[in-house]
């Protein structure tokens, strides 16, 4: 299978599986415990049907949205994800370039493998800087200062990762950062020589957002250990309120799932929330963001921008979320598989597929702009 034979999420996933060493593919593909939430994230979109209107004159489609003060040419953006140079040597450069060319937002992860400054310098367009709350308060402050200096548009604090999720696939494969060269690792390298050659011949793998703060010279570190050892489980609403005040700009919380928390986010001055269960990678059994969306939009949608992510594989999934009141939706694996499959060309192709699907689906729904989508277009089963 080649890139031009990829027509949807599943095709890109298969191509990624072919290209990547098993532990790395499973790191992207996997989730927590029994992966119930991972599956539910996508299946929940089937809990309702679209009800189209016809004969509305749909030759011009405008799918742009404005969210957290940023104008996006598409109603989807690239959610922040870690370690992208492990998946393809172009890493964040590929995804940021593709997002920029589409006129949408790219989320830089604090666990990213290309520096925030490089991304800001090279790719025009709105960018989010996603970070975690570390035990080292100095580090939290330093990250915000650095983001300010880099001219970041939106800060996004991920609040669902107070401890590492139980990702059993990673335990089984021994996945760690940097990729470990033990016997199993060498075998994986040998099985995927094209990936291995790229990994070994390109710039050394680093976490430039954390460089000075995480010492990886002593060997590999699992993601679970990073969460458990470096993040601060005592983080609370007062801590975040202080950060929001200090940032004094667009500030989102990612990983909000309850109405109560959504209201508190409004109270402390956040400008956006992302309903998310981290792609099913944290609390298995957690509800899907789509299932929680209506309740939260009804409670706070007039006071804060509500976004969601998790499980999006189709243009119709995006339309359903927008119809329920999401201002925009994030995609994760949707661009990670194509990144692994074919670098920037892969990500561009996947994002264009999604844009084309949305455009086609809006026409079929009888909508010329996102603002025309509403709950009148949906029926729950
Ligand atoms: C993630 N996600 C994530 N979130 C975050 O806030 N910081 C991060 O560094 C990462 N890293 C990360 C790595 C990988 C491999 C995945 C799959 C996910 C979660 C991400 O932002 C988003 O919430 C989910 O990916 C959305 O679900 P889908 O679109 O992957 O189903």
UniProtKB/TrEMBL annotation:
PROSITE patterns in the cross-refs: FMN_HYDROXY_ACID_DH_1, FMN_HYDROXY_ACID_DH_2
InterPro entries found in the cross-reference section: Aldolase_TIM (IPR013785), Alpha-hydoxy_acid_DH_FMN (IPR012133), FMN-dep_DH (IPR000262), FMN_HAD (IPR037396), FMN_hydac_DH_AS (IPR008259)
PANTHER family to which the protein is assigned, alphabetical: 2-HYDROXYACID OXIDASE 1, S -2-HYDROXY-ACID OXIDASE-RELATED
Gene Ontology molecular function, alphabetical: oxidoreductase activity
Enzyme class: oxidoreductase
This protein's name: Alpha-hydroxy acid oxidase
Origin: domain of life: Bacteria
Enzyme Commission code: 1.-.-.-
Keywords: Flavoprotein, FMN, Oxidoreductase
Organism per entry: Rhizobium mayense
Family label: Belongs to the FMN-dependent alpha-hydroxy acid dehydrogenase family.
Pfam families xrefs: FMN_dh
Cofactor: FMN
Residue ranges constituting the FMN hydroxy acid dehydrogenase domain according to the UniProt record: 1-381
């Amino acid at each position: 299978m080649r890139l031009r034979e990829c027509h949807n999420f599943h095709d890109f996933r298969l191509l990624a599986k072919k290209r990547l060493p098993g532990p790395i593919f499973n790191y992207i593909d996997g989730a927590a415990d029994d992966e119930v939430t991972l599956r539910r994230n996508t299946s929940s979109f089937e809990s309702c049907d679209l009800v189209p209107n016809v004969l509305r004159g749909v030759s011009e489609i405008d799918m742009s949205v404005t969210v957290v003060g940023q104008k996006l040419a598409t109603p989807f953006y690239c959610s922040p994800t870690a370690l992208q140079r492990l998946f393809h040597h172009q890493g964040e450069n590929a995804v940021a370039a593709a997002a920029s060319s589409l006129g949408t937002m790219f989320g830089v992860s604090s666990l990213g493998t290309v520096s925030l400054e490089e991304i800001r310098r090279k790719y025009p367009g709105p960018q989010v800087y996603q970070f975690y709350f570390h035990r080292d308060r100095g580090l939290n402050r330093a990250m915000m200062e650095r983001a300010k200096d880099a001219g970041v548009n939106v800060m996004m604090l991920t609040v669902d990762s107070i401890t590492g999720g139980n990702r059993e696939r990673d335990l089984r494969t021994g996945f760690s950062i940097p990729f470990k060269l033990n016997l199993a690792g060498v075998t994986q390298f040998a099985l995927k020589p094209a990936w291995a050659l790229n990994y070994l011949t390109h710039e050394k793998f680093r976490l430039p957002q954390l460089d000075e703060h995480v010492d990886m010279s002593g060997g590999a570190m699992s993601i679970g250990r990073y969460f458990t050892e470096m993040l601060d489980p005592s983080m609370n609403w007062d801590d975040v309120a202080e950060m929001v005040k200090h940032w004094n700009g667009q500030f989102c919380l990612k990983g909000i799932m309850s109405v109560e928390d959504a209201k508190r986010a409004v109270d402390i001055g956040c400008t956006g929330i992302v309903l998310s269960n981290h792609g099913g990678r944290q609390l298995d059994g957690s509800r899907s963001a789509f299932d929680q969306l209506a309740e939260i939009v009804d409670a706070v949608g007039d006071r804060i921008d509500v976004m969601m992510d998790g499980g999006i594989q189709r243009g119709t999934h995006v339309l359903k979320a927008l119809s329920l009141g999401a201002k925009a939706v994030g995609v994760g694996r949707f661009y990670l598989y194509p990144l692994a499959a074919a670098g920037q060309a892969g990500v561009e192709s996947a994002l264009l597929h999604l844009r084309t699907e949305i455009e086609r689906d809006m026409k079929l729904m009888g909508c010329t702009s996102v603002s025309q989508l509403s709950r009148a277009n949906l029926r729950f089963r």
